[in-house]
């Protein structure tokens, strides 16, 4: 007889409707290639907020949440899942996992784009299947599917620092990889000083870049100094061009400013524009004569998640990442947590499901 364990998840029923905590039971023995994980702490990502506010489409009902850290309770029979570094996933292991689930065999996976797999599934973005509902981080448990990138988290990394690695930190690692710019000595512009922007500042400055930060919020600009910013601005073009511009706010005026800031040979990486917005002005002659590159980043590769965790393990004591997560809400308090998140600020709100 299959052993069942109790679990709970917060069901999102659509824009303007409260989240409902549902009690269910799930098999204590996951399927082949799967892992059952207890969610120790999750954080409300900006895309979760966009979904709840109706700014981006998402299936309803569903289980939101895709930034979390947890503990493996069980793995399926046969060959166990593997972490990105090749080590086997075992019960008791503390882990973070990717937003995406990829097949590994389609044309896009074969071209090095597993984050855009033709049969892509995403934690926190799937329609609810009442038979297998544990697909988002706002739950006591998640069932990790084959094709999920999993990275072990050392015990010394606090939950509030580790959880954002699954989205924010890994996304920034992907952004800087896509920028293909030698950061040592480079002039780097970061527009948007929320969690992603501050993470980009820390990563780039640690690599030896001169980092300029643009954000209209004075408190965010001030905090950027603690993450290694060389200079900050409320919205003015930097003096002289930049080698790399990283746009993480999604604001149209910030995209335009980042595009206009490029020096000859400069690269712009866009990652914040994940909801529809007005177009920007692009002068093709300037792009041609300036040898400019414009790159879009959405989701990330498995190696970016490993880079993110390695970075946080090595440097979380140097930068105040723990201050970027606030609150401590249970599943039944998620509506309150989203209410606080609507107020803005750099901090994520923490959700402790158990």
UniProtKB/TrEMBL annotation:
Its cofactor is Zn(2+). It holds the Pfam family ADH_N. Its EC number is 1.1.1.1. CDD domains: MDR_TM0436_like. It comes from Pseudonocardia eucalypti. Keywords: Metal-binding, NAD, Oxidoreductase, Zinc. Residues 33-154 form the Alcohol dehydrogenase-like N-terminal domain. The keyword NAD applies. It is an enzyme of class 1 (oxidoreductase). Belongs to the zinc-containing alcohol dehydrogenase family. This is alcohol dehydrogenase. The keyword NADP does not apply. Residues 196-312 form the Alcohol dehydrogenase-like C-terminal domain.
């Amino acid at each position: 007889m299959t052993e069942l364990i109790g679990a709970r998840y917060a069901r999102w029923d659509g824009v303007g409707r409260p989240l409902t905590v549902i009690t269910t039971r799930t098999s204590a023995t996951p399927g082949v290639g799967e892992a059952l994980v207890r969610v120790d702490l999750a954080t409300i990502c900006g895309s979760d907020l966009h979904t709840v506010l109706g700014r981006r489409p998402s299936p309803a009902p569903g289980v939101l949440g895709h930034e979390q850290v947890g503990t493996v309770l069980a793995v399926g029979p046969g060959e166990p899942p593997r972490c990105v570094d090749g080590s086997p996933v075992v019960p008791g292991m503390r882990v973070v996992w990717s937003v995406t689930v990829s097949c590994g065999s389609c044309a896009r996976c074969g071209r090095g784009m597993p984050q855009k797999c033709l049969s892509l599934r995403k934690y926190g973005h799937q329609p609810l299947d009442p038979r297998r509902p544990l697909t988002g981080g706002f739950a006591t448990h998640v069932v990790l599917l084959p094709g999920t990138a999993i990275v072990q988290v050392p015990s010394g990394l606090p939950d509030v620092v580790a959880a954002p690695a699954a989205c924010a930190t890994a996304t920034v690692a992907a952004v800087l990889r896509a920028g293909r710019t030698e950061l040592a000595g480079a002039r780097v512009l970061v527009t948007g000083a929320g969690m992603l922007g501050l993470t980009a500042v820390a990563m780039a400055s640690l690599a030896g870049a001169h980092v300029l930060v643009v954000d209209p919020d004075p408190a965010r600009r001030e905090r950027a100094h603690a993450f290694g910013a060389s200079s900050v601005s409320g919205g003015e073009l930097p003096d002289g061009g930049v080698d790399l511009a990283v746009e993480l706010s999604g604001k149209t005026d910030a995209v335009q400013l980042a595009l206009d800031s490029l020096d000859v040979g400069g690269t712009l990486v866009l990652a914040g524009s994940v909801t529809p917005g007005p177009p920007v002005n692009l002068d093709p002659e300037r792009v041609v004569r300036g040898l400019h590159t414009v790159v879009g980043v959405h989701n990330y590769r498995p190696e970016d998640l490993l880079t993110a965790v390695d970075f946080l393990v090595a440097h979380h004591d140097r930068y105040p990442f723990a201050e970027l997560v606030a609150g401590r809400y249970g599943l039944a308090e998620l509506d309150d947590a989203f209410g606080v998140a609507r107020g803005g600020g750099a901090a994520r709100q923490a959700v402790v499901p158990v």
